[in-house]
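Shift notes (night). Ran Tetraspanin while the centrifuge was going.
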Amino acid sequence: LAGGIILGVALWLRHDSQTTNILYLQLGDKQAPNTFYVGIYILIAVGAVMMFVGFLGCYGAIQESQCLLGTFFTCLVILFACEVAAGIWGFVNKDQIAKDVKQFYDQAFQQALMAESETNNGKAVVKTFHETLDCCGPDNAIGAVTPLWRDDLCPKKDFILKTILETSNCHKKIDELFSGKLYLIGIAAIVVAVIMIFEMILSMVLCCGIRNSSVY
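Came back to this:
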């Protein structure tokens, strides 16, 4: 059940419309940074393997097989080690992921403002960011005044004052998007780790109990 829940959360994060709209973008020959998906793929793999290992543990307990329970314990130790490594990787790279996406957006924004934007897809990339995140412009003076003179790039608003007050810069929105998703990944990883620890303890207790009560 825990494996199924983790797999479901990971698949939801993988196919979330906001992240897929942004991370599938391509600016000329450059692909949007998709380092974020590394953590998602690890969660998918862990969830799928947990479902199989859970079945192995249940079957081993029903059959009172020390071999199957020992295999179950070994698989859990390997999964736990992989999850800890993934957690360390995520903690180290949590700021870098948003930074890479912001740099990609800034490059597209600069191209969209220049005359050469007619010959590339910078304008389309920027509009996708703006429509997906409901934002306009980077975190600087140019970004602050962009809604006033580039209606072709920014989401349409009813009034200029409302545009200034309500439209957030895209750097802030990108930070909020990925910090929220990484927060969910972190919670899922902690829950899985706690469950794994209890599973390892209980599997060893059961294995020892079977050994001590064996008539052979």
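The chain has one domain: 1-214. The longest helix spans residues 66-113.
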